[in-house]
């Protein structure tokens, strides 16, 4: 599929800092817009329906799967999460850059569909720091944190399948790296589109 906008996909183990990084990127760059996923997990403290996620029941999620409403969906940490077609296609067709914060299974599915998508994996600096970020965030019970840490090992084993890797040790440095990837990707596709337009012109194809 080909849209005028760019697609960025950010994956990371829980607690590595992807939501914080993506939020900061969007504050600095209004051309990057979020894709709001659907999930069957319950909202955390400050989360709002339609902002962080569309929080839906298992039945509602099933109905969307049946209706083929998702570009991708996956089971993550005992819940289901999915990117609806509506969440990305409308924005991308208008030329916006869309950023998806999804797990590695979804990221790899997106790359199959949108070959031009840039996939970015965020790593924490260490296991100890990952655990302490999850604890400091204070949003999940210790059981939930243990599940997330166990899943983190499997998730981190997928890192080599991603186009870019960022180590989120210094937050400012990681934001800079993310901004640089976005910038480089824009230039790359701009150059490709120009080259294609010139080829078409030379061949007298509109
Ligand atoms: N495949 C897929 N994964 C998603 C989607 N939305 C969120 N996720 C992932 O689900 C996992 C859990 O997300 P969340 O419950 O918000 O926890 P957090 O990662 O600790 O903030 C993370 O890896 C998210 O990136 C989606 O639409 N599709
Ligand atoms: N570079 C960093 N240094 C220290 N703490 C960080 C850093 N990046 C994020 N955090 C903190 O770690 C916790 C987890 O970050 P969050 O963005 O919620 O992660 P994720 O979305 O990957 O689960 C939050 O409390 C956040 O403020």
What features would you describe in this structure?
It is a single chain. With 206 residues, the protein is of the alpha/beta class. It has a domain at 7-35 and 96-202: 3-Layer(aba) Sandwich (Rossmann fold). Helices cover 47% and strands 20% of the residues. The protein has helices spanning 18-28, 58-66, 85-93, 104-113, 127-137, 142-156, 171-202; strands spanning 7-11, 32-34, 37-39, 53-55, 70-76, 79-84, 97-101, 118-123, 164-167. A hairpin with a 2-residue loop joins strand 5 and strand 6. The longest helix has 32 residues, at 171-202. The two termini are 19 Å apart. The mean pLDDT is 93. Guanosine-5'-diphosphate binds at residues 14-15, 19, 37, 41, 72-74, 76-77, 81-83, 101-103, 105-106.
Can you lay out the helices and strands and say which pair or pack?
Blueprint: E1 7-11, H1 18-28, E2 32-34, E3 37-39, E4 53-55, H2 58-66, E5 70-76, E6 79-84, H3 85-93, E7 97-101, H4 104-113, E8 118-123, H5 127-137, H6 142-156, E9 164-167, H7 171-202
Parallel strand pairs: 1-7, 1-8, 2-7, 3-4, 8-9
Antiparallel strand pairs: 3-6, 5-6
Pick out its properties.
cytoplasm; binds adenosine-5'-diphosphate; four-stranded mixed beta sheet; 9 strands; Rossmann fold; 206 residues; Guanylate_kinase_CS; binds guanosine-5'-diphosphate
Catalogue the ligands: guanosine-5'-diphosphate, adenosine-5'-diphosphate
- CATH fold naming of the domain at 7-35 and 96-202: Rossmann fold
**How large a portion of the residues is in β-strands, by DSSP E?**
15-25%
Q: Percent helix among the residues?
A: 40-55%
Q: What is the second-level CATH architecture of the domain at 7-35 and 96-202?
A: 3-Layer(aba) Sandwich
Largest sheet: 5 strands, parallel
Q: Which strands sit side by side, in order, in the main sheet?
A: 2-7-1-8-9
Report how far apart the termini are: 19 Å
CATH class of the domain at 7-35 and 96-202: Alpha Beta
Mean pLDDT value: 93
CATH superfamily of the domain at 7-35 and 96-202: P-loop containing nucleotide triphosphate hydrolases
DSSP strand tally: 9
Helix tally equals: 7
Q: Decide which structural class fits the backbone.
A: alpha/beta
- C-alpha Rg, in Å? 18 Å
N-to-C series of helices and strands: EHEEEHEEHEHEHHEH
Low-confidence regions: none
> What would you call the shape?
globular
């Amino acid at each position: 599929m080909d849209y005028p906008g760019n697609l960025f996909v950010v994956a990371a183990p829980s607690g590595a800092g992807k939501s914080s990084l993506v939020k900061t990127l969007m504050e600095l760059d209004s051309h990057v817009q979020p894709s709001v996923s659907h999930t069957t997990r319950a909202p955390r403290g400050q989360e709002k329906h339609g902002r962080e996620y569309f929080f839906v029941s298992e039945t509602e999620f099933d109905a969307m799967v049946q209706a083929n409403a998702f570009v991708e969906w996956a089971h993550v940490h005992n819940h289901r999460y999915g990117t609806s077609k509506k969440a990305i296609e409308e924005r991308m067709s208008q030329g916006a850059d869309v950023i998806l914060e999804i797990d590695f299974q979804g990221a790899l599915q997106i790359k199959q569909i949108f070959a031009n998508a840039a996939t970015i994996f965020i790593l924490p600096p260490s296991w100890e720091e990952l655990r302490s970020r999850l604890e400091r965030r204070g949003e999940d019970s210790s059981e939930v944190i243990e599940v997330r840490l166990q899943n983190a090992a499997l998730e981190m084993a997928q890192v080599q399948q991603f186009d870019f890797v960022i180590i989120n040790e210094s937050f400012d440095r990681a934001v800079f790296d993310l901004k640089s990837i976005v910038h480089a990707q824009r230039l790359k596709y701009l150059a490709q589109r120009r080259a294609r337009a010139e080829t078409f012109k030379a061949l007298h194809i509109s």
